[in-house]
Amino acid sequence: MIAQNIGFWIIAATMVVAALRVVTTNNVVHAALWLVVVLSGAAGQYILLAAEFVAVTQVLVYIGAVMVLFLFGTMLTRARIGSDSDLNNSYKKLGIPVATVMLAAMALALIRSFGDEKMPVSDNIVSTQQVSDQIFGPYLLPFWALSFVLLAAVIGAIVLARKD
Amino acid sequence: MFVNQFLFLAAVLFCIGVYGVIARKNAVLMLMSIELILNSVNINLLAFAMRNGSTDGHTFALYIIAVAAAEVGVGLGLVLLVYRNKKTISVDELSEMRG
Amino acid sequence: MRIFAAESEILAPLATGWFLENAWLIPVVPAIAFALIILIGKRLPMKGSELGVLSMAISLVLSAGTAYQWVQRVNGASEEQFVSPVVRSWSWWQSGGFDFGIGQHIDGLSVVVLFVVAFISTLVQVYSLEYLRGDRRYTHFFAALTLFSGGMLAMVLADNMILFLLGWEIMGLCSFMLIGHWWEEDANSRAALKAFFTVRTGDMGLLVGISMLYFAANDWTQANLGLSGFSIRGISAWALSGEPNSSVITIAAVALFIASIGKSGQFPLHTWLPDAMAGPTPVSSLLHSSTMVVAGVFLVARLYPVFFVGLDILGSGGNLIVIIGGITIVISAALAFVQNDIKRVLAYSTVSQLGYMMLGLGAGAWLPAVFHIFTHAFFKACLFLGAGSISHSASHHSFDMKKDMGGLRKVMPITFATWIVSTLALCGVFPFSGFFSKDEIIDNVGYNGYNTFMVVGLIGAFMTAAYMTRATYLTFFGEPRGASAGHAAHDTHDSHQTHDSHDTHDSHSAHDPHAAHDTHDSHSAHDSHAAPHESGLLITVPLMILSVLALGSGFLNATPFGESWERMKLWVEPRASVVFEESKSGGPGESLNLVAGVVSAEDSHSKSVCGSATPEEGVCYAPQLNHAPFKWSKAIMSMLIVFAGGAISWILSMLVFTKRDPRVAGLTSRIRLLGLGHSFLVNKYYLDHFYEKVVVRSVAYPISRAAYWFNQNILDGVLHGAARVTTKLSDWVYKNVDQRVVDNTVNNSAVLTKSVGTAAQPTQSGRVSQYGALLFSATAIAALVLVIVNT
User: Fold this and answer.
1) A6 and A78: one domain?
2) Which ipTM was obtained for this model?
């Protein structure tokens, strides 16, 4: 337990710092790289939460595919590769109180609801087979719907991005 | 491990994402902030899956990853289109809907 | 469960057969045909129409076989035995613990409607071969028509409400495509939209009703019958078990009935039906006789136990269904008097006849109402196809009775004869089919104690006879006018402008069905612009078949001739017997085995315990209903009323339209009150105005205007105003008070106000991130409030 806790806090601290850099850095490419850190951290948290398959998927899809997309997007739009002071809104300070209030609300709710409840310790690890049984069993319909969403997204992305 | 430590991490990431959405005007950076929000939701789902000893959360976390991929695909397509038409990806320039 | 040793001896095992077990094929065939027509239809020699006709013919054969075997099944059962429906169900999809089934539920009601739908659809498709020849979207027309029939068939044999909803919505979609078939005309696409949205308004009720029933009934049905809460059998049994909470089932019944109102064109949502005439005539015929509009009536008939208990049918006083039905009969019949378009007369007549069906269902006359679905389908389809035949061959695609028809009985003898037969059937003249169904409804309504509504029914019968006589007179008698007289002026497409101006008092602009019929342009190349003539065989043969049925179908339940003629009652009406289930459930794909037992009811032979009370053990699937004994005196009375209506209308029509008698002609323009009434009717009680001008505007306009006003006056105004006032004030102070002392303060306050103004004015900037900020901050504040309030 101790080792896991230590792991959690290290990863969590890294994630928070990286996430803050994502939203504050003045360089688009740096932001993308910081995002990689956050996403890898999230994958680590998934493993701590006994969700190996989701963690692997996170690495493959997010860090593998989505990040490449982001970098391509950055380059195709010829954003300045170096630092650029013109990335933020003029009223970006508005975001701070909003985020703080939101965090306060959530923190209040969380403390009140879960207090110091502990995670149950159980030996059964969620196997990939169980997850696939879920996906192709009771949640097949959302899966189908999702397939349509992806298909529509693929077509939509092509239609949007092609040059006529 | 507490349940709350995961939920708090998710809440913090969520709020950072919200800040990013508000503060950024570069469209690609806005999309990145949205990814932060989505990831925080995933952490929540998996935390609750562990707490309740069910696998439903895993299923939906996977679904969210897929949806996020679709969203980035379409979002970047839009950004490219905007860039081609306006030569900028600052969302502030897209104020044709101005009241 | 009790085991019946003694009673079960009197129970014969129920016969079944291939057609009954495989009735689910009936809608599947058209669905496959639809896909084929879409995919390869254009490359086929007949442009895909052969697939449509073929699939409907197969469906017709299958449903005829099903009907035959159902009759065998009923005949094999003993007298009081509940003839259990042939139910087969499979799991369709599952999601998160919910199981949605798909399957067939074949009983008397579905057999009748299946047969009627398949039959009419086949004839309509044959008719369309000729009527739409050369149309530019010929293939798509047949595809939509086939899918439309398939949707109706699927809905009719659905064993659960999800499949029912699916069929219902497929029909809604296809009706949109078919009504808007000639969408190049603005009016047509508007009519299609109107039909779609009006029906959708009602559909909300269906969704609400289905989900309410599911959540209310699921536990009971799972526990007692092993069925899901979507299953029609389960819901029926649950409704009659005495179990349901009375307010829940009432609200569910009202919600479902709202769906029926939308679909079946009942008051006050009837306005879409006449506009739906913008579609091609075969579509109107199909839409108005056996599919679509019947769906609403079918819904009530199908879930009758829910309505029976929920709306307290047979209870004291009127209920919602009876009242709506009664209103619909009278108001739509009145509207039929002022129409010049022959199809619109028929459309209002359909609305009125649907009112009869609703009236019957609401008053406990289940069987007569269902029988009226059956007979009405034949004669109404015949009338519509007859109208299409006239416009196709005699009046150059015009439907205006006053302008382009008249005197057609000599040139179109077959159309004329079939029209007359169907008109007599519609008016309910003995021995035509309408008599046996409509009179039964009126009779039973009175017998069940709804005397007021019996009078309403009789008034309706009088009006029906009168407006149909008027239409018949205008079309077939008198002197030929306009196109039917062969006036060349009407050949040009521009001439239809005159129809429009003729209709100027009909201020609802979405209506212009005439112009629509010019759009199948290539069609006009052949002989249709010659002198009026009889239509071809592909048109007249369906007409003749339908008119024979309009004459003969009534004898299937000819109450005047005694019990042995009441075949429909025997075959279709579910028997109100208590059923004891042997096994709780069959697995997926199996038919459920029911062991029916007959309670030897002590009080009377005919009274079963089934009703809104709880049966002691076992379940009921149908409530006990009464049947009025037939009396010749009542029949003769209603005959006299019908003849009076016809005669009065005939004389008036002659005087007005032919003789131009100064005493009656132009009465509406001379007597103010009559004129007012006339324009009231012509404007359809101003309901359309009400919906468009009042409802839509009162909802949409004020909101957008208020938002705009808020924007302009409050947000901007406050800021600008404050800034301006302050500036002025400071100006005044600057000039009149000591400049040096207050100068700074005043200037600063003005600057402050201005800066607040400029800071807050960008709330309407059109910038995404700003809207995001507003959204998130509103959410955050709301969340905070919720958290604090919930402490």
Assistant:
1) yes
2) 0.90
